[in-house]
Amino acid sequence: MFYQAVMDRLTDASARGLAEAVSRAVGEGALAGGLKLPPVRSVATELHLSPSTVNSAWQLLRRAGTIRTDGRRGTVVATPGAGGPGRYRAALRRTSGFGLDLSTGVPDPALLPPLPGLRGLSPAPSSYLDEPVLPELGTLLRERWPYSPERLAVFDGAMDAVDHVATALLRLGDIALVENPCFPPLLDLLDTLGARVVGVATDAHGMIPDRLAAALTRRPAAVFLQPRALNPTGASWSPSRAASLAAVLAQTPQVYVVEDDSAGDLSSGPPLSVGTHVPRQTVHVRSFSKSHGPDLRLAAVSGPATVLDPILERRLLGQGWTSRLLQHLLLTLLTDPASVTAVAAARDEYARRRRLITAGLASAGIDLPPGEGLNIWLPVADEQAALLSLASAGIGAAAGTAFAVGSAVAPHLRVTVGLVATDHGEVAERLATAARAAAQPIPR
C-alpha cells in the first residue's frame, strides 16, 4: 500500500519530490496516520533512489510534521493533529517554479482596496472593559446582516470564528455534516476535534435539501454550510434554496447550523442565511479577507446568546477581544467611497475573469455549472495527470481530493481563476487539455 500510494504521486526523483509524494498521499488519505514506514534501504531499492535521497526526504517530512519517530515502532505517519492539517497542506501548498499559481484560493492583491490613512483612528481602547465590538461597526453590520441577530461579535478571521464555535458545539465522536466537496481547513479542524465528518452532496445552488434531510437522520450535532461562492465549486444559494434548507433544518431544532460566508462583498447576490428562518439554530460568519485583504484578519459573527455568550466569556480569559484599531480600519473600508468603489470593481473583475475562463472551457466542450467567486471546480479525467499537464505549462492548481469527503466525488481540480488577469483564452485551453489528460503508469 505504501509503495503504490507513493509511486502514484511521485513525479520527481529527488528528496523534495519524494517528500511531496508522501505528503500528498497522507493529505489525501492514501496513507493513514500511524502507518509504519518501510526501512530507508527498502524504500530506496523499491523506488530506485539512493538511501541518502530517502533520508533527506524523511528529514523534510519530519520537519513538516508529516512523519515522526515512534519508539520501537520506528518511523510512522503522524496521526491527525500531531503533524498539522494534512488536507490544508495538500490543497494549498506553495510550490515554487509556477509562472501562474492558481492553487492558492487567495484574492488578487491588485484588486484589494487601498488602505486609508491611519490618521484619526483610535490608537487604543480607553479601558479593558470597553465593548468588544466597536459600536459604530456593530451598528453598520446589523444594518447589512441577512437577519436580525441576537448577538454579534468580531473574531480574527472566519476560521478563528469557526474554530471557537465548533469547539463549543462538538464533542469527541459527534457527527458534523459538511458540503461535499468542502473547504479543507474545515475538514482538518473537525478531524482535530475528533468529530465524525459526513459529506452531503451539492449542486449548482449548494447543499441539496433532500440529501441534507437524509443525513440529519444520523443525528449530527452541527451542520456547516457556505451560503455564497462555495469553496471550491463557486455555488451560491438562491433565496428558495435557503428557504428549503431552513425548512429541513427546522425539523431538527437541536442541530446548530454554522454558516461561513467567506465570499462576503465579492458576491454578486444578496447575503442569505437560514437564520432568516431558524435564527435560534444559526451561527452566521461573514469574512472580509477576500474582499478587503487576507491580512485584515477580521470576521463578524452572529448567533444565539446560548452559543456565543459562553464563547465570548471564555475568550475574555485569553485574547479578550479583536483589535478595535483593526475594527476601526474595517469600518473605514466599509464606508469610505474610494474603498467601496474598489471592492465593487474587484467583484466585477473577478466575475469577468471567471466568465472568460468558463466560456473558453465551454468552447472546448467542458461546461461548468453557474457559480461565482475566485475558484472553479474543474472536472478532470485523472487528478495527478491533470496536475502534471498544468505543471508542464507552468500553472499550479489544487488537487481536488483534499476537498472531498470520502470517495463519492469524481476527480476534480480547484483552480483559482480569479488570479488570471490576462491571456484567458490560453489559460482556458491549458485547463481543457489538462482536464482530458490520461493517467500514465510509472515504470518500476
From TrEMBL:
> SMART domains per the record?
HTH_GNTR
UniProt keywords (A-Z) are: Aminotransferase, DNA-binding, Pyridoxal phosphate, Transcription, Transcription regulation, Transferase
- Please list the GO terms describing molecular function: transaminase activity
HTH gntR-type domain location is: 12-80
Record carries keyword Transcription:
yes
| Family annotation (CDD domains) | AAT_like
The highest taxon in the source lineage is Bacteria
Kindly indicate whether the keyword Transcription belongs to this entry: yes
InterPro entries in the record, alphabetically? Aminotransferase_I/II_large (IPR004839), HTH_trans_reg/aminotransferase (IPR051446), PyrdxlP-dep_Trfase (IPR015424), PyrdxlP-dep_Trfase_major (IPR015421), Tscrpt_reg_HTH_GntR (IPR000524), WH-like_DNA-bd_sf (IPR036388), WH_DNA-bd_sf (IPR036390)
UniProt similarity note: In the C-terminal section; belongs to the class-I pyridoxal-phosphate-dependent aminotransferase family.
Q: What is this protein called?
A: Aminotransferase class I/II-fold pyridoxal phosphate-dependent enzyme
